Amino acid sequence: MSEETKAKGAQQPEADAKPAPEEQAPAAAKEETQAAAGTSGKEESTDKADQSKNSGKEKKDWFGGGKAKELEATKAKLEAAEKKSAELRDQLLRTAAEYDNYRKRSAREADQKFNDGVSHAVTQILGILDTLDMAANAPCTDENYKKGVTMTLDKAAKALDTLHVVEIEALGKPFDPNFMNAVQQVPPEEGQESGSVVKVFQKGYQIGDRIIRHATVVVAE
After folding, report:
1. Secondary structure in 3-state letters for the chain
2. Domain for residue 136, yes or no?
3. At 171, which CATH number?
4. Whole-structure pTM value
5. Is 183 a domain residue?
6. pLDDT tens, 175-213?
């Protein structure tokens, strides 16, 4: 065997050890496909995780925001109801106060009209009562006559009391120009105080705070 042939025989195993280009290509493609599949799986998993996270966040924001809005709306309704209630309460109090004032004013006006009517009526009969009073105090030997006059005066006093007409107390009292008219001044006698009423010429009457007639009196100096 020649040396050239030997050399060719020695080189032949190295050539056989290298894979063919066709064998190398499927392996590389397979590795690329697996790498691409791994990358795609990771990206898809990441996208799903992000979507799930975003969905949870949106749901949380929706529930939280909805609850806050509901609380704000309820609070606004409550404040409006409280304001309306306060307005109605103030209106009710004003109405009650106005009615109370009207009732009191009406009562005063009714009393005033009643007193005016009674005063006018009593004024017309005071002259008769004055005459009967003088007759009762005049000396008289006819006891039946005097008793009849006295009984008439008693009935007149009861009628005046029913009408709330009272006699002004004057005898022995300090002189008061609001209730009395002084027609004379005399030196005080023993036991009499200066400025006090020592004699009543004509009785005075009043109904409530209204003077029907002032008492006509004599005052000690």
Report:
1. CCHHHHHHHHHHHHHHHCCCHHHHHHHHHHHHHHHHHHHHHHHHHHHHHHHHHHHHHHHHHHHHHHHHHHHHHHHHHHHHHHHHHHHHHHHHHHHHHHHHHHHHHHHHHHHHHHHHHHHHHHHHHHHHHHHHHHHHHCCCCCHHHHHHHHHHHHHHHHHHHHCCEEECCCCCCECCCCCEEEEEEECCCCCCCCCEEEEEEECCEEECCEEEECEEEEEEC
2. no
3. 2.30.22.10
4. 0.56
5. yes
6. 999 999 999 999 988 888 899 999 999 999 999 888 999
